């Protein structure tokens, strides 16, 4: 029996954002609703980014354990953790440098999702995993990272579209900066 496939990263919240109809009529809704759409997209992007960082950390550890075994490296995985988790082990960052104004909403759910990508794998004891399970875990985590990243890029495109609509309104004089500041002072 095979394990059930985990729901796509971000679940239905991200599914709704990625639906082509999500932005239908955005140019006609009130500013407060456009800002709410932007905030919603920002929250989902932060959640996906956080999940991706969790996933990448686990994937880096699993891949390094595979490498350690292949090279017959006598050091323990614990000894290698500083190297694994350091930025020098990765290439240059590919993020968009967005300023985040929100925090992940449910970190424990995101960790559960990441762990569900490799059912049967005890990611708390990677050195004791048999080679075949370790290799399958690496493949599963890598596939999960690819689909998560694709969904994250889609959410970022929605964020960009909503930001573009806000910019258009300000550029064309359709938005009132004084009202924005007043609204933010009441809610901030």
Automatic annotation (TrEMBL):
A Pfam family this chain is assigned to: RsiG
Residue intervals of the RsiG-like domain: 24-85, 122-180
UniProt-recorded name of the protein: Aerial mycelium formation protein
Organism taxonomic ancestry: Bacteria, Bacillati, Actinomycetota, Actinomycetes, Geodermatophilales
């Amino acid at each position: 029996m095979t394990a059930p496939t985990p729901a796509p990263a971000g679940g239905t919240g991200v599914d709704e954002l990625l639906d082509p109809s999500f932005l239908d009529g955005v140019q006609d809704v009130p500013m407060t609703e456009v800002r709410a759409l932007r905030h919603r997209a920002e929250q989902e992007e932060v959640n996906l980014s956080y999940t991706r960082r969790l996933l990448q950390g686990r994937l880096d550890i699993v891949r390094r354990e595979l490498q350690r075994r292949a090279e017959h490296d006598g050091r323990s995985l614990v000894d290698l953790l500083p190297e694994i988790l350091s930025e020098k082990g990765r290439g240059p960052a590919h993020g968009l440098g967005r300023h985040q104004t929100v925090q992940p909403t449910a970190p424990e759910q995101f960790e559960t999702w990441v762990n569900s990508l490799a059912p049967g794998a005890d990611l708390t004891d990677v050195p004791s995993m048999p080679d075949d399970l370790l290799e399958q875990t690496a493949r599963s985590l890598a596939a999960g990272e690819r689909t998560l990243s694709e969904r994250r890029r889609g959410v970022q495109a929605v964020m960009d579209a909503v930001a573009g609509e806000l910019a258009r309104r300000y550029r064309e004089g359709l938005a009132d900066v004084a009202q924005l500041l007043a609204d933010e002072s009441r809610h901030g």
